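Inverse folding, one chain.
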């Protein structure tokens, strides 16, 4: 394994850092994007998608993509995470597009993936309730009845002639209020043939009501999506046997992207804190000159670098079908929480103010842990998968 970056990968990072530094470099710019109807800056998304081709980085060239691996997309996610740039990148390129590529029919892939790669179509994964981490198999197995189980609640699917109709609700759909395409997980078959299937629904279809919700992390817009007897197209095969494994594979890749995002955010939080303690004076000297402050920041630095190594490995391993994304995500979220918490404390009084950016990084750590964690469950599931706690019978 070559741990160094190629010239192309370095160029991706450099270009994105320069662009996002200009467009999302201040808390005011981030808040302006968050407060827009879409929850992100459409002009910035046009640049990221149309000029830089981020949604198509990990898509094959046959579908209009660049043909790179998850690694390149993860490096891009690290830079968007550094500036907490609100965008549909995770929902579109990290969740929906890989599902279309893995489970879609040739006709579905040919019709939708080129539009996603060009940035002309954004997409979102709609999972019932608060079951996103469960559906992606990050905190446990995803073979249960999280999609509805034949009972009230969740999203239900019924056959209607040659098509399908969906009804139900999904509560935590990333960028669901602005997505042009929804990939909806729904329960079908009742109790006799109970199974979870995935369906394609146009965001502006009759009966679809997407309402943006107030979220802890405003830079990661969420929506409640109601499906009121909506016409839907089945994604892939009606049997649905491959859906749980497909969601788990996509979940591992998404976890690697999220881990790199969190590392970028943690690195930025540490960088801004170091800048501040070098300037702020107390008792006639810079706060950063005190040994206790140096020790605290050194601990953060070590934790961020360890998380970065884990995140990079997870991104590289995702292309080789080695599922370690959840473990890397746990380490990265813990590093971000530590870096942002120390940043708030060492900024003193201004670290607690609404106008300062410090709280935005802490909210990103907490919000991602609510959506994809918590950290202890991510680690417990990884340990269980590795068989770390299996007991061996001892016979006397």
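Residues assigned per position:
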């Amino acid at each position: 394994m070559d741990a160094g970056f190629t010239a192309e990968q370095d160029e991706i990072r450099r270009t994105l850092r320069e662009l996002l530094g200009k467009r999302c470099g201040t808390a005011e710019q981030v808040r302006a994007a968050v407060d827009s109807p879409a929850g992100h800056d459409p002009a910035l998304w046009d640049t990221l998608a149309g000029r830089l081709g981020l949604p198509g980085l990990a898509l094959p060239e046959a579908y209009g993509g660049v043909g790179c691996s998850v690694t390149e997309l993860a490096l891009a996610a690290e830079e968007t995470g550094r500036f907490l740039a609100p965008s549909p990148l995770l929902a579109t390129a990290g969740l929906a597009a890989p599902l279309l590529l893995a489970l879609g029919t040739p006709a579905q892939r040919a019709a939708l993936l080129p539009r996603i790669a060009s940035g002309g179509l954004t997409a979102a994964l709609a999972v019932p309730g608060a079951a996103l981490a469960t559906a992606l198999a990050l905190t446990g197995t995803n073979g249960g009845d999280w999609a509805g189980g034949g009972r009230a609640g969740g999203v239900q699917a019924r056959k209607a002639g040659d098509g399908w109709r969906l009804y139900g609700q999904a509560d935590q759909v990333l960028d669901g209020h602005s997505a042009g395409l929804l990939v909806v997980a729904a329960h079908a078959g009742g109790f006799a043939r109970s199974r979870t299937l995935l369906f394609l629904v146009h965001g502006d279809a009759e009966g679809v009501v997407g309402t943006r919700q107030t979220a802890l992390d405003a830079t990661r817009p969420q929506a409640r999506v109601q499906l009121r007897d909506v016409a839907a197209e089945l994604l892939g095969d009606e049997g649905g046997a491959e859906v749980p494994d497909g969601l788990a594979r996509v979940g591992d890749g998404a976890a690697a992207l999220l881990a790199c995002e969190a590392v970028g955010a943690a690195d930025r939080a540490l960088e801004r804190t170091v800048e501040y303690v070098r300037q702020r004076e107390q008792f006639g000297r810079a706060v950063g000159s005190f040994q206790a402050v140096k020790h605290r920041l050194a601990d953060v630095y070590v934790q961020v670098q360890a998380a970065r190594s884990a995140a990079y490995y997870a991104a590289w391993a995702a292309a080789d079908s080695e599922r370690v994304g959840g473990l890397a995500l746990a380490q990265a979220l813990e590093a971000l929480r530590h870096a942002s918490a120390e940043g708030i404390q060492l900024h003193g009084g201004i670290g607690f103010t609404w106008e300062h950016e410090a709280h935005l990084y802490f909210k990103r750590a907490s919000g991602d842990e609510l959506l994809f964690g918590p950290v202890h469950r991510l680690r417990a599931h990884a340990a269980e998968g590795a068989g770390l706690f299996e007991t061996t019978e001892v016979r006397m």
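Residues 243-279 form the longest helix (37 residues). The chain has three domains: 7-122, 124-242, 245-385.
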